[in-house]
Prior knowledge:
- The structure is a single chain.
- The chain has helices spanning 18-31, 48-59, 85-90, 126-139, 168-178, and strands at residues 3-8, 35-39, 64-68, 97-99, 103-107, 144-148, 180-185, 192-198, 201-207, 222-229, 232-240, 245-250.
- With 251 residues, the protein is of the alpha/beta class.
- Strand 6, helix 5 (168-178) and strand 7 (180-185) form a beta-alpha-beta unit.
- Helix 4 (126-139) packs parallel to helix 5.
- The model has no long low-confidence stretch (mean pLDDT 91).
Amino acid sequence: MGTRIVHLSDLHCPARNEAQAGALVDSVKAAKPDIVAISGDLTRRGRRREFRVAADLVAQLPGRHLVVPGNHDVPVREIVMRPFERFAGYFPDQPFYLETADVFLTGFNSALWSRFGDWSLGAAPRLRTAPVEALIRERAGGRLAVVICHHPLRPHALDVRRSETARGPEAFAELAAAGMRLLLHGHLHRSSKSCVEAVGATVCELCANTALSDRERAGTAGYNIIDVADGDYGVTTAVWTGSAYEISVAL
Length: 251
């Protein structure tokens, strides 16, 4: 049967075009995913009304959900004392991992505020990644091990500045050594796939475009569809045409 994952990112709710939000829900329902994985930036500025819209939209999506926060989900006024309290309030009881016969999916929060300079850039401290490594080693078995976070972990040719995730390359290498074969992220607002040879295997980063907002940086909004079967996977993108989301190209 295989497993289908819909990978959404950077919703930045609420949508400027309400019809687009409805079209996104309809498109994801039509895709019939087993899992919907959302790699952060569900809101524009972490406001409560934005979180309410985002939570309502996510609740309409089929399948099981795994959602991690992005830097835009941190309210500026709460950035020091309780940066993720609001996210946790609107997306409670997020699972540590989801699994099917084909996939082991887990995530971590890369949207840390406590770094010098531009706090919108992510970080992957050992404190956050070590439990993920342990879960992969313990539970993944022969299945495709997938990790999701908001920020890229390796410098990305499409946007070197915005992919300067603190301790990202080290975390990528550690997760790959634990068995990760696919990393899902957003933040760059561009659909792309980049792969490297590591620990005797091909390990890829898959970036999703902004799924809903008008903050596109290259082309139109969209999302990724990942089909996993027999230890392998394929990726296609769905893109916003102005009236609907349509399947576009394979990555």
